[in-house]
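Exam prep: given the inputs below (a chain plus protoporphyrin IX containing FE), describe the expected output before reading on.
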Amino acid sequence: MAHDQQKNDLTDSEENILTNRQGHLISDNQNTRTVGERGPTVLENYNFLEKITHFDRERIPERVVHARGAGAHGYFEAYGTIGDERASKYTRAKLFQEKGKITPTFVRFSTVTHGGNSPETLRDPRGFAIKFYTEDGNWDLVGNNLKIFFIRDPIKFPDLIHAFKPDPVTNRQDPNHIFDFISLTPEATHMITWLFSPWGIPASYRFMEGAGVNTYKMVNDDGVAHLVKYLFLPKQGLKFLTQAQAEEIQAKNFNHATQDLYEAIERGDYPEWEFCVQIMSDDEHPELDFDPLDPTKIWPAEQFPVLPVGRLVLDKNPRDYFAEVEQAAFGTGVLVDGLDFSDDKLLQGRTFSYSDTQRYRVGANYLQLPINKPKTRVATNQHGGQMDFVDGDKGSENPHINYEPSSIDGLKEAPKSRKDYTPHVEGQVMRKKISRTNDYQQAGDRYRSFEKWERDDLILNLVTQLKKCNPDIQERMIGHFTEADPEYGERVRSGLA
Ligand code: HEM
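Solution:
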């Protein structure tokens, strides 16, 4: 037995004694093993090698977007209804059916653009990603705090992000790149109007809304679908920071939102959101001046009322940030029976992207990790890959039969208990944007509905950044704002004069 290892026969009272990962007790964690007290070090020093090589691998690739985040555990409590109707009218998803039904959840909030330790005071959309551990397996709802998005076609996403990320040469974020891309993307005018208003810097994660942004579907027992948008309204209220307030906080604290969430939960002041939906019949709605599948548009609440379905409460901090928050993997493809996709192109692009990046970022067996694993039984014939472990995915009771169908043994298909939802799709295959683009109407409506101080803040924030841009970029942006509302364009123009 090596001199720094002992037999591991700990009693209960010795449970906090340090060991290595082989279960060997560590009696000297201060000195490497050396030839004489002055060295050199010897190579067979297993404890040092294990410790330092693990340290060398402490990081996994961080998220390409939404790298900076904070998370918490909690629960969803259903009302059993959607507005005044029984939830079953619209969806057979089990988590919504009974009043008082509790579903455990994990939520990760984030900023989008910068790296894992960037300031939380930056003007940026905030992520609001929720994992519902339902009795039918996991449902992930990967949303943002603003109710819309910059683009409607997923092929533009890498370019959008490159324009917002630091310049690949100078490694500095450049407003000239941001507004260059945005000025050539008219559908972003609405999102930019929200983002450069006070809504672009929530006071902290507790004081912001959540929104699914994309249009999804709910499917009932008869196999009938409705279009649906998801919304979370903070019971703590909405609070934002002006640029000046954000800068004041940032000078002293660049973790204020993580701190606020953690401390509120530690003192028992559990943040809570009313979970709501908006519903539309499943068709193209030619009577509307926007396409219901367009993620750059809000469904007006006067026409499509915001209906409560339950409440989301966060009541437990993670024990280990890396294991729970960093390794958490959410994806728009992760739905349960009774919930479905719409034909929204952005949503379909996202659905490929999330699990793809997680197989790379976390590894092929990312779904075996406790934070990502459903709380229901998992049994597949998928085997192997880095870090596969036998209890992660039980497989068949007969471990010889890892295929299906089999006449010998092994896993069997589940009996079909519900009517399939079989949407009809036909059309020519093409590359074409949607015809009802209406890029400026809602941007103008939003500008006009802001209070005076919000409009002033919006103009100030835009002008400050646009001053750093090329004249032709400024002109194109003024053009978009003018289309939204002539006063909006005029105020940006005079601010730049
Ligand atoms: C085509 C459009 C989009 C693509 C391709 C895309 C792709 C991605 C990717 C690759 C990640 C990193 C995931 C990971 O490493 O675990 C991510 C994270 C995220 N995205 Fe998107 N995204 C898109 C649009 C959106 C939209 C519209 C929203 C809001 C509704 C959104 C919300 C989020 C959130 C909240 C996260 C962080 C999830 C977490 O906390 O782990 N994304 N996105």
